[in-house]
Here is the input.
Amino acid sequence: MRAGLLIIGLWLAATLAAALGPAPGVDLAAALRPPGAGAAFGTDPLGRSLAVLMAEGGGTALLIALPATLLAALAGSLLGVLAGLRGGAVDQLIVAASSVVLAVPGLLLALTLAALVGPRLETLIAALAFAGWPVFARLARSRTQALAGEAFVLAAHAAGLPRRRVMTRHIAPTLAGTLWVQAAFTAGGAVLAEGGLAFLGLGDPTRASLGALTAEGLRHIRTAPHLALLPALATATLVLAFNLIGESLAARARGN
Amino acid sequence: MSVGEPLRRIGTALATIVAVWLLVAALVALTPGDPVDLMLGEQARPAAREALRARLDLDSPWPLRAVRGLGGALTGDLGESIWLDRPVSALIGERLGPTAALAGAGFLVAWGIALPLGILGGWRPGGRVDRWGRALAILTWATPAFALGPLLMSLFAVRMSWLPLGGYASATALLLPALTLGIGISGPGLRLLREGVAAQRQGLHVTAARARGVGGTRLVVVHGLRPALAPIVQVAALQFGALLAGAVIVETIFRWPGLGRLLVQAIAARDLPLVQGLVLVMCSTWVAMQALADLLGRAIDPRMARGGRP
Here is the structure.
């Protein structure tokens, strides 16, 4: 947990520092410098500091992954709880819709959407949220169904509380633990997907991205492999941070 | 297992595939912007625009178009690629082999890692193999294919020059893409296998077998592994989705001429019929794998057929 939060904190600090500092200027005389004096990670073919570009790229990844996860979690758990409580046709419809979306691998879905609408920040967030909601819906639905038979929920119903109140005050808080675990892993997956899309040339072209930096660096893999490897491995640290948080939340939910 | 159950599962799978087609068609139709603008650019000549409109049947309402396209798709006609000017089904047919080879090899790599580490780790929880195995699973799961690929490439193709940088020319060209894909997806299988074997190890049936004098490999494989296999088959099927998505990136890194690279090229060329056809074929394969895994899981562990937990 602490390690994960620490890594994300470091990324945020780096992003902030890059945003406050001067924009990395193009300086062809300083192109393709090796890591060392002046620029910690060397410079790219346009002479910009790779470290600064990577810090900005990490910011882009968070700027896309976090809202996408939030949207997916909110929409998914709302639909899931609804399906679990209502049952019947509503339930069947939500389950069917989630299985259709689940039948398309997340990256393919995001790829298609990004290609159709054009890769912009909002499109990428919407695409990743659309690919992510079914998992939350499934989780929330099965947990709600399990909870619906518990004594405290039956008691709330018996006391004559309106259904909405039972949902928000009794079921939602008990669900939260499970959903937080999933949210951490979804955020990690969204960072991976954002990087993958940018690597394939479908990221937001106006922003630095770790995936796009990797794709750019791959052209110099023979002479300057660090140009591809550093941003790519940096992506892994960000994903790892979210997954570690997910692991420890899951361990906590299991009760140890 | 009754005869009706497999039939019903196949029916669900077919319905899902049809729904995926409709979903993709709806996405194409309902996203703002004219597909003709998307494909030809806004400065295209009116005659060219009209020709493309007619060719894509854009003047009929989209549900009608989707249903017509579906009818074609079911008979193997996925329309014509605008970019390459050839039938989509023929293009997909050519690229199916390389992707199948890559996916198969990646699958072998993944389970070549997951099986030994998962079984040995689960048999001795907390031991050295277990600790390394779990660390490996967490690390590989967090590492994007676009990191692992360039890493392996710079180690084995550039620094040591053992293997080609990419392409499809030789059998060794398969090795790096397959390793990238396989290592990347090995984690979940490893962890699940470990949990399964660790749980089985404490089961009464293992104690009973041990009391009967069963030991060594036979004890681990027959009594420890087999009951843990049913959920593994399901994970293997789910992995197939990660495999397909991973293939898109891995094929791009190593210039492997498969479906994934064709999809990226089709998107870059704004070739909507080709994109639609590729997404349909890739999703259908995954849906079919999941249905197969369900049926296989029931065959391995009959308790699952009754809706029980394995």
